[in-house]
């Protein structure tokens, strides 16, 4: 069994998953939902998106919806592959350098 890091403060550790194959809806025909759960508060955030979003698209979505109001996550737990997670972290850091 893998030990999951315990969060010591809000937004330190988050679970992130993409729910796909949804019926297109909204003015932008969203067909997926990015689910982010703060492990400290157990607070979910549901963000409409598209199933083919890139790491940069997800990073911008996170920046505009969560990260512009919180501190940088310490750990992201996700079922995505390590290449995607690495690209996501790179793009999140780009957002912080550009917008902070």
From TrEMBL:
Lineage summary: Eukaryota, Fungi, Dikarya, Basidiomycota, Pucciniomycotina
GO molecular function: nucleic acid binding
Protein's name according to its UniProt entry: Integrase catalytic domain-containing protein
UniProt-listed InterPro entries: RNaseH-like_sf (IPR012337), RNaseH_sf (IPR036397)
Originating organism: Austropuccinia psidii MF-1
């Amino acid at each position: 069994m893998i030990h999951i890091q315990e969060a010591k403060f809000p937004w330190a550790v988050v679970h992130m998953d993409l729910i796909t194959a949804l019926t297109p809806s909204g003015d932008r025909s969203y067909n997926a939902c990015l689910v982010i759960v703060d492990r400290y508060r157990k607070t979910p955030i549901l963000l409409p998106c598209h199933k083919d979003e890139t790491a940069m698209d997800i990073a911008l979505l996170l920046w505009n919806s969560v990260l512009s109001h919180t501190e940088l996550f310490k750990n992201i737990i996700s079922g995505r592959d390590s290449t995607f997670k690495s690209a996501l972290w790179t793009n999140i850091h780009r957002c912080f350098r550009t917008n902070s």
